[in-house]
Amino acid sequence: MAEPLFDRIALIGIGLIGSSLARVVRREGIARHVAISTRSAATLERAEELGLGDSYSTDPAVAARDADLVVVSVPVGASGEVAEAIAPALKAGAIVTDVGSTKGSVIAQMRPKLPANVHFIPGHPLAGTEKSGPDAGFAELFENRWCVFTPLPGTDPDALEKLSEFWRRCGSNVDTMDPDHHDMVLAIVSHLPHIIAYNIVGTADDLQTVTKSEVIKYSASGFRDFTRLAASDPTMWRDVCLHNKDAILEMLARFSEDLASLQRAIRWGDGEKLFDLFTRTRAIRRSIIEAGQEVDVPDFGRQVLAHPEKSAPPKG
Ligand code: NAP
Hints:
Blueprint: E1 6-12, H1 16-28, E2 31-37, H2 41-49, E3 55-57, H3 60-64, E4 69-72, H4 79-86, E5 95-98, H5 104-110, E6 119-121, E7 123-125, E8 146-149, H6 157-169, E9 173-176, H7 179-206, H8 212-217, H9 223-230, H10 234-243, H11 245-267, H12 271-290, H13 302-306
Parallel strand pairs: 1-2, 1-4, 2-3, 4-5, 5-6, 8-9
Antiparallel strand pairs: 7-8
Helix pairs in contact: 4-5, 7-9, 7-11
The structure holds NADP nicotinamide-adenine-dinucleotide phosphate.
């Protein structure tokens, strides 16, 4: 096993992302000491029962003191408060990063609160599930997934390289982007699909003419694939919507225009238009599989998970 990269890592927030980091950091021996902090005594107790770290506190400043790397993994709306709480405890030269799904807002909240003598490098691992809390994490979550950094002007290249090495040891590929560009890209690849899923599941739930039991009974015809996204954490997704408002509204406007055009094609029986679109979109899925970001097994791997003896488990 390679030498530890850091003496002390502080994980602030120990839900799906924080606890997955804790597990992979331990498995790969990335740090000599993992200090864990979370807001509630109940989550902290659970993290301790699971043996996720070496020390535990509900005070983020206690965990952050003397840390070489601090990873903030809380809902994006809470990142400013956390930065304020850890600021007095940070040692000079420490790397402070986050995992938030929006970047412009996190930078606006955290940067003014952090001292100038630490390296603040915002980040976002493009990896997740619809589950939350410390039990939901697993060491393989980041394998073959992208971690995108949105470094601020003047970022120290050595600190960026060290953080990149951290994420590579966690299994990720790394990339850098401008924060506004990140927020626009994520609005289309992640935020819009979640909003559409929340909306369609909400519509089905509201329908009076189709009973809820029918929606559930016949869900395998497509509906259930939306329910996975729509089961995602409400706090996290409320914050994403509030903190990436402009990019999401821009993508929703484009989506609504395209939906209206699709509606017109259906109304006027324009089969050629429908066929062309459905052919174009099919190719996108093929490219995702070829890029290693999805498994090419029937039924999104459900049969594999139900009958693991039939095939190798899906990656990631
Ligand atoms: P999670 O499982 O719900 O865990 C959230 C953690 O943040 C818990 O430790 C929780 O503490 C703490 N927390 C909640 N509200 C807080 C507040 N107001 N102040 C301080 N701490 C608070 O969430 P997660 O899925 O790990 O998401 C964490 C971050 O990762 C979010 O910014 C999200 O945008 C980003 N992210 C998520 C995914 C995903 O798929 N889930 C993927 C990539 C990035 P207590 O339990 O003690 O209250």
